[in-house]
UniProtKB/TrEMBL annotation:
InterPro entries: CofD (IPR002882), CofD-like_dom_sf (IPR038136), Gluconeogen_factor (IPR010119). This is Putative gluconeogenesis factor. It is found in: Cytoplasm. Belongs to the gluconeogenesis factor family. Pfam families: CofD. CDD domains: YvcK_like. SUPFAM superfamilies: CofD-like. Its main location: cytoplasm. Keywords: Cytoplasm. Required for morphogenesis under gluconeogenic growth conditions. It comes from Angustibacter luteus.
Amino acid sequence: MTRPAVVALGGGHGLAASLGALRHLTDQLTAVVTVADDGGSSGRLRRELGVLPPGDLRMALAALCDDGEWGSTWRDVLQHRFASQGELHHHSVGNLLIVALWELLGDTVGGLDWVGRLLGARGRVLPMSSVPLMIEADVVGLDPDDVTAVRTVRGQSEVAVTAGRVTSVRLVPDAPPACEEAVAAVRSADWVVLGPGSWFTSVMPHLLVPDLADALCTTSAKTLITLNLVDEKETGGFSGADLLDAVREHQPDLRADVVLADPSMVADRRHLEDAAARLGASLAVFSVAQTGRAGVHDPLRLAAAYRDVLR
């Protein structure tokens, strides 16, 4: 049986979860990763060297590494963080390796491909844009004297932990260039998987890069949206239906085929089915959470759910 070409979009732990599941189903797998991180090691390298933030790209590569001793060892090297009293504190080896390859090759995609070869990665990792981006969000509930007042929160690291309710997000610059290889992957895919992950800072930004958004809205691939297991800080109080409506509000032209949800996100099934239908999608409910670990996807359960949906 021919295995489907799948493109998974997102960032951070959410994208790593979907990649860890999808790698069991296909060897034609491409990760398209957000490049708006401005915190931690990635933020420091971005500010100092003017490069794309490498952290989410590194996590995606680690999620795709070969299962053997070679791949798992290099995965651990890639993820290793230094602990010191100096400038190297909390930098990850993988971030430094990726940036070194970028400087040596002068080629962002080529550098990521070299790391993938080193890991024996089962798939390819691409940035969603060729330039580093900043996220801005409109947030309500931050002013104790006027809970309806809208404030602007800037930066992925700030939006991700805001105590208010995010109503919309945008990118700076507002029409960034897409990674050409990412656009081509979406257009030639059989399936596109969006989510899980931090909704406004890892999932939604893909819908705001014009050429990538156009590819997502016009591709012949089927589209699967995977909902989170629990509320992220930035989406506290959002139901599954709210998350889907936010997608539609930010990109009205996007159509989906399936919305995948864990039973924990289906408090009101009819409400969630209606929100999925507004995107053109049907609802598929599978238990995909890890037993005893709240908010963590079980890679084999998620793989089984993806297998049933993609089939």
